[in-house]
C-alpha cells in the first residue's frame, strides 16, 4: 500500500476546453453520456445533485452561458419597433405590464398622431389615453408620456438626452427604461433588468438578489461593460423563448448542462419542443418590423378595434 503523504491532491481547475461540448441545437436534449461527476460544473444539475461551486467557477460558467447564448441568438435585438430615440423611449414606457407585441401594434397610430415630443406634450389626455388603451394602465402611462414629453420640450430642446441621470429625471422613466434607451439608441452599455432577466439570473445562480438595482450591480460585476447591452438581449430572448416562467422547456434548452435549475421545467425533449415560443417554435415574433437578420416571422398588425 502506498504511503500517505497526508495531503489531498489539488483540485483540478475548471477548464472549459476540457469539458464535453454543450449541445447548441435548441431542440436537442443534453445527452446522458456527457454528464460529468457531481463536482463538475456541467454535470451537477443534470445529475440532480447539489450544486457547489466557487465564485470564480460561477463567473466562468456565467460567461460561458453568455457565449453559448450568443451562438443561439446571434440576432438578439430590442423587440420594440422604433425609428429614433424618442419612439424607443415612448415604446419602452408603454411596455410596462404588457407585451412588446401589444406595444408594437399600438405605437404606429400613436406616432402618426404625435411624432415629436412637442406634439405629444400638447396631446389632449383623453385622446392619448384612447390611443394607448390596449397597452393597459393607460391613464398612468398617459400621464407619464405627457410629463416626459413636456420635460423633453422644456428642458432638453425636444431631444432625448443620452445620459442616465437626465433620463431618470423624466416622469415615468426608471433605470430599466433608461438603459434600454441608452443601449439601443445611443450605444451606451447597460443592463436591462426586466422580469425575464431577473428570473433567469436567479435560476442560473448568478445572484440571489430580487431588487432590480441589486441584480444589476451583481451581474455588472460578472461581465465586462462592453457586454452588458447584448447580454441583456440574449438573456431576455432566452427567457421569452425557452426558459419560461411557469414551465421552462428544459429538455430543449441548449445551455441545460450549465444550468443549476435544470429539471424545474419539462425535461422530455418532445414535450419540451412543444413549449418553444416565437421563432424557436415556428411562430411570429413580437416586432412588426423585425431586423433583416431575424429568422422568424414578423408579428401581425393589430386587428380592428
UniProtKB/TrEMBL annotation:
Biased composition (Basic and acidic residues): 1-18
Catalytic reaction equation(s): 2'-deoxyribonucleotide-(2'-deoxyribose 5'-phosphate)-2'-deoxyribonucleotide-DNA = a 3'-end 2'-deoxyribonucleotide-(2,3-dehydro-2,3-deoxyribose 5'-phosphate)-DNA + a 5'-end 5'-phospho-2'-deoxyribonucleoside-DNA + H(+)
Pfam families per UniProt: EndIII_4Fe-2S, HHH, HhH-GPD
Details of cofactor binding: Binds 1 [4Fe-4S] cluster.
Keywords in alphabetical order: 4Fe-4S, DNA damage, DNA repair, DNA-binding, Endonuclease, Glycosidase, Hydrolase, Iron, Iron-sulfur, Lyase, Metal-binding, Nuclease
All copies of domain HhH-GPD, residue ranges: 94-241
SMART domains: ENDO3c, FES
Binding, [4Fe-4S] cluster: 243, 250, 253, 259
The EC number(s) this enzyme carries: 4.2.99.18
Record keyword Iron present: yes
Molecular function terms from GO: endonuclease activity
Cofactor(s) listed: [4Fe-4S] cluster
Family of the protein in this entry: Belongs to the Nth/MutY family.
NCBIfam families referenced in this protein's UniProt entry, alphabetically: nth
Role played: DNA repair enzyme that has both DNA N-glycosylase activity and AP-lyase activity. The DNA N-glycosylase activity releases various damaged pyrimidines from DNA by cleaving the N-glycosidic bond, leaving an AP (apurinic/apyrimidinic) site. The AP-lyase activity cleaves the phosphodiester bond 3' to the AP site by a beta-elimination, leaving a 3'-terminal unsaturated sugar and a product with a terminal 5'-phosphate.
Protein name per UniProt: Endonuclease III
Annotated organism of origin: Streptomyces wadayamensis
Gene name linked to the record: nth
Amino acid at each position: 500500500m502506498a504511503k500517505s503523504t497526508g495531503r489531498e491532491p489539488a483540485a483540478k481547475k475548471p477548464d472549459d476546453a476540457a469539458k464535453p461540448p454543450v449541445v447548441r441545437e435548441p431542440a436537442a436534449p443534453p445527452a446522458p453520456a456527457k454528464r460529468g461527476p457531481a463536482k463538475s460544473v456541467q454535470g451537477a444539475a443534470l445529475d440532480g445533485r447539489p450544486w457547489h461551486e466557487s465564485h470564480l467557477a460561477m463567473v466562468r460558467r456565467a460567461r460561458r452561458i453568455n457565449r453559448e447564448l450568443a451562438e443561439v441568438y446571434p440576432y438578439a435585438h430590442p423587440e420594440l419597433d422604433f425609428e429614433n430615440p424618442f419612439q424607443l423611449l415612448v415604446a419602452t414606457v408603454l411596455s410596462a405590464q404588457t407585451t412588446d407585441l401589444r406595444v408594437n401594434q399600438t405605437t404606429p397610430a400613436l406616432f402618426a398622431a404625435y411624432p415629436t415630443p412637442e406634439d405629444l406634450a400638447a396631446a389632449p389626455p383623453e385622446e392619448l389615453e384612447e390611443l394607448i388603451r390596449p397597452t393597459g394602465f393607460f391613464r398612468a402611462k398617459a400621464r407619464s408620456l405627457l410629463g416626459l414629453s413636456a420635460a423633453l420640450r422644456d428642458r432638453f430642446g425636444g431631444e432625448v438626452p443620452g445620459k442616465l441621470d437626465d433620463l431618470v429625471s423624466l416622469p415615468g422613466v426608471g433605470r430599466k427604461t433608461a438603459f434600454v434607451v441608452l443601449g439601443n439608441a445611443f450605444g451606451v452599455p447597460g443592463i436591462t433588468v426586466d422580469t425575464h432577466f431577473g428570473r433567469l439570473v436567479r435560476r442560473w445562480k448568478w445572484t440571489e438578489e430580487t431588487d432590480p438595482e441589486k441584480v444589476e450591480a451583481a451581474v455588472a460585476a460578472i461581465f465586462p461593460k462592453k457586454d452588458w447591452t447584448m447580454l441583456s438581449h440574449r438573456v431576455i430572448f432566452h427567457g421569452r423563448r425557452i426558459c419560461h416562467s411557469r414551465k421552462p422547456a428544459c429538455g430543449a434548452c441548449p445551455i441545460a448542462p450549465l444550468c443549476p435549475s435544470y429539471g424545474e421545467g419539462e425535461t422530455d425533449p418532445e414535450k419540451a419542443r412543444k413549449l418553444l415560443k416565437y421563432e424557436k417554435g415556428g411562430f411570429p415574433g413580437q416586432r412588426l418590423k423585425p431586423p433583416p437578420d431575424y429568422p422568424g416571422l414578423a408579428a401581425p398588425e393589430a386587428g380592428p378595434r
